[in-house]
């Protein structure tokens, strides 16, 4: 069974400067439990792929499903199965981490008794910042808060869009350790990156995307043997 399946997924942006084919017939299977990298240079279409799954970008054609739920026919269930850590560190500056997680849990309909706000903040190393305004948090802390936010509804799939872009080496290591732990606990982890070494170090399967097209998709060992 797959955590994520796409068939002929296509996105054409109709911008002022004309049409831009950002995704061109991408058919991809991401197995449940895998640690999966979507690798490609800037502009390859990685964020577009993620944003379609997140419901933030409307696909032009093709199909996508998350945990067996079609994003069109069964959108709510599909969305409930995925947690997305966006690339941008945008947070309401006057919200505290605890408030942010409570609001997010409310949006996903997590009953009060089942919320694990403090446990999640502890897990990402933000317990002592639970009541600090987001505007006072460092970039690394914001990234970790966004990981926490993506996990409040306990999704089986966690997607991180360029999680280490602009992040210092120390935080990178601890962030990696944390997502590794999640994966070992059974969470399917998908990350986008333009660093081969990041995909190589962390992931068991790698898909390479360029100019909106899937170039290769295989286990890490098989793929590296061909490079
Ligand atoms: P990546 O995440 O791999 O850097 P993106 O998915 O962000 O790639 O972008 C893929 C292509 O689509 C790029 O050429 C980008 O300029 C273009 N693009 C992305 N978003 C838009 C948009 N809203 N309107 C027009 N073109 C866009
Ligand atoms: P700075 O602004 O100093 O870079 P960071 O938020 O990046 O602050 O990191 C602060 C500390 O928290 C670092 O020592 C880092 O190793 C640690 N840290 C980062 N991510 C995690 C995590 N997911 N779990 C636990 N500790 C973490």
TrEMBL record:
Residues 4-227 form the ABC transporter domain. Transmembrane segments: none annotated. Keywords: ATP-binding, Nucleotide-binding, Transport. The keyword Membrane does not apply. GO terms for molecular function: ATP binding; ATP hydrolysis activity. This is Transporter subunit: ATP-binding component of ABC superfamily. It comes from Magnetospirillum gryphiswaldense (strain DSM 6361 / JCM 21280 / NBRC 15271 / MSR-1). The lineage of its organism: Bacteria, Pseudomonadati, Pseudomonadota, Alphaproteobacteria, Rhodospirillales. The gene is yadG. The chain holds residues 15 to 241 of 321 of the full protein.
